[in-house]
Specification:
This protein is an alpha/beta fold and about 400 residues long. Strand 9 and strand 10 form a beta hairpin. The two termini are about 10 Å apart. Bound molecules: flavin-adenine dinucleotide. The site of flavin-adenine dinucleotide has 35 residues, from helix 1, strand 3, strand 12, strand 16 and helix 10.
């Protein structure tokens, strides 16, 4: 990481994966950071997360890859199956020489709390990071030299030289600065969670037992499965489109609809479904890409900047890429506004492309009838060592370094 010449005090709003990674990157670039989180305690939800090689590269740059790897699983393959027939559609070999030569960094699957804990521990250890929970930001004001953050609870003002808004999908700061309304609901919902792996005994396909990431693609539904936390837990995510979606209601995408949508699935999917967590349902949202991530001394990061559907498993990966790019930028420019502009210029186009293609990949995954047949036929011809279609997603743009050269 570069070393800054003019230390600033930068506030980060939001203590999710994006906010913690940003705080760490900014502190490692030589600035003071105060991170404010509205929850009473830091935490993540009890489900899994896929980290493609672009994310493991970012974690290495943030100095936490080894810690994350100590609990994560490195799956041998990504396998796409037909959820109706139970036949394999295609696979990607994640341990081949071709994979290693191309991406150099591992594909990992982790429990969200393990990744979050690794980032939180690194922030706690860094002397330049101050962490505050129970602080809900209501709005921000800025002039040419500072930003003032206002809180609902406690009633106080935090003044910083600049602010990074990493306050997630429903970002208050984005709402005020970008003004593009509410996130777009896809009418799909997810039921998800991780359970002790032994509870899956007798309910796993051969591939799943090998620790592969399984994606069972079906008409307007899919199931994702993979092990996390050294293989001790097994993560399952069941996703489907609801026919009862109503914009102003929360009574759609119900458990009964889940059962109905998956009723025609193959035996392996039906065996797994009773063990998909029903504790909570997650309506799935994204937004269309926007250009204006930077507003003077405030910038957006992570889901606040580029909320996307999860079909390419890239939302958190992109937040980690954001954090690394931001760290480099605040190390290169003494004016935070210039640093934010450089960061956004590097990140915007790539994040937008992934946001847009996540929707498209969801459509491909959820094809029905003839569409699904054609998809399966086309994908059957690809080799597990052919990465040409996914390589751009898993390869971040090179980050400029102070000397004007670029880091990988
Ligand atoms: C079903 C599903 C599966 C997914 N799978 C993957 C995957 O496999 N791989 C992947 O890379 N991504 C995945 N994602 C996306 C990923 O979860 C998100 O992109 C990522 O968690 C976003 O992190 P974030 O820090 O930007 O936002 P968040 O995690 O939403 O964090 C925002 C934080 O800000 C805090 N906050 C909000 N408002 C305020 C306020 N006013 N004041 C103070 N604090 C505030 C919140 O409490 C929260 O802690 C998935 C998403 C879903 C829904």
């Amino acid at each position: 990481m570069p070393v800054t010449t003019t230390p600033h005090h930068i506030a980060v709003v939001g203590g999710g994966i994006g906010g913690l990674a940003a705080a760490l990157a900014i502190a490692r670039a030589g600035h003071e950071v105060t991170l404010v989180e509205r929850a009473a305690q830091f935490g993540e939800i009890g489900a899994g997360l896929q980290l493609a090689p672009n994310a493991s590269l970012a974690l290495e740059e943030l100095g936490v890859l080894a810690e994350v790897q100590s609990t994560a699983v490195a799956p041998p393959q990504l396998v796409m199956m037909d959820a109706l027939t139970g036949d394999q559609i295609t696979a990607i070999d994640l341990r081949s020489t071709a994979y290693k030569e191309r991406f150099k960094h591992p594909y990992l699957v982790t429990h969200r709390t393990d990744l979050h804990a690794a980032l939180l521990a690194a922030c706690r250890e860094h002397p330049a990071v101050t962490l505050r929970t129970g602080h809900t930001v209501t709005h921000a004001e800025q002039d040419a030299s500072a930003v003032r953050l206002h809180f609902a609870e406690p009633v106080e003002v935090l003044t910083a030289d600049a602010v990074v808004a990493a306050d997630g999908l429903h970002s208050k700061l984005r709402q005020a600065l970008v003004g593009d309304g509410d996130p777009v609901c896809s009418r799909y919902v997810a039921f998800r969670g991780a359970l002790p792996a032994e509870r899956m005994s007798g309910r796993m396909s051969q591939h799943a037992a090998s620790e592969a990431v399984m994606v069972w693609a079906g008409p307007r539904m899919h199931l994702v499965q993979y092990p996390v936390r050294r293989g001790e837990l097994y993560n399952q995510v069941a996703v489907f489109e609801s026919d009862s979606y109503a914009p102003d209601s929360d009574d759609w995408g119900t458990e009964a609809e889940l059962e109905e949508r998956f009723a025609g699935a193959c035996q392996a999917v039906r065996d797994a479904l009773p063990l998909v967590s029903r504790d909570r349902r997650w309506p799935l949202y994204d937004r269309l890409p926007v250009d204006n991530w930077v507003h003077g001394r405030i910038t957006l990061l992570g889901d606040a900047a580029h909320p996307m559907l999860q079909y390419l498993a890239q939302g958190a990966c992109q937040a980690l890429e954001d954090a690394v790019a931001l760290g480099h930028a605040v190390g290169r420019f003494s004016d935070p506004a210039d640093a934010f502009t450089a960061y956004a210029e590097l990140r915007r186009e790539r994040a937008a492309r992934i946001q847009t293609n996540a929707r498209r990949f969801g459509d491909i995954c959820h094809l029905e009838g003839m569409g699904a047949t054609l998809r399966n036929m086309l994908l059957a011809s690809r080799s597990p060592e052919d990465f040409d279609d996914i390589s751009w997603v898993w390869t971040p743009a090179p980050v400029p370094t102070p000397a004007g050269t670029t880091a990988p």
